[in-house]
Amino acid sequence: MEKSTEEKIQQLQMIEQGMQNFLAQKQQLQSQLIEIESAIKELGTSETAFKIVGNIMVSAKKEDLLKDLNSKKELIELRIKSVEKQESKMKEKASAMQSEVMEKLNPKK
Q: Is 13 inside a domain boundary?
């Protein structure tokens, strides 16, 4: 096997690890998004609102909490889109590299 082919296989393995990292990051962000959406829904049905600051819970204005949660939600949605774009680019790169490797390993006769 050629040295360049071996290097491409190593690069493919690194890309696979990167994809796994993106997947874990995306899952974590989606989990945070679900929590925030749940909190927004609860705030809509409650009359009083509280916020945890350090180790204590303090009364807070419902509007301020909603504003804060909605801005966090937007930020997380943007981060998810960013991770998805990076993931997509990495998939394309991996696919192209995989085709090259397969071509070199199985040359047409």
A: yes
pTM comes to 0.81
Rounded to 10 degrees, what is the CA torsion of 93, 99, 100, 104? 160
Half-sphere exposure of 47 (CA within 13 A, CB side): 0
Note down the domain range covering 69: 3-103
Query: Which run of H or of E encompasses 107?
Result: none
Q: What share of the chain is helix, strand, coil (3-state, %, to 5)?
A: 80, 10, 10
Work out the pLDDT band at 43, boundaries 50, 70, 90: very high
3-class state of residue 48 by DSSP = coil
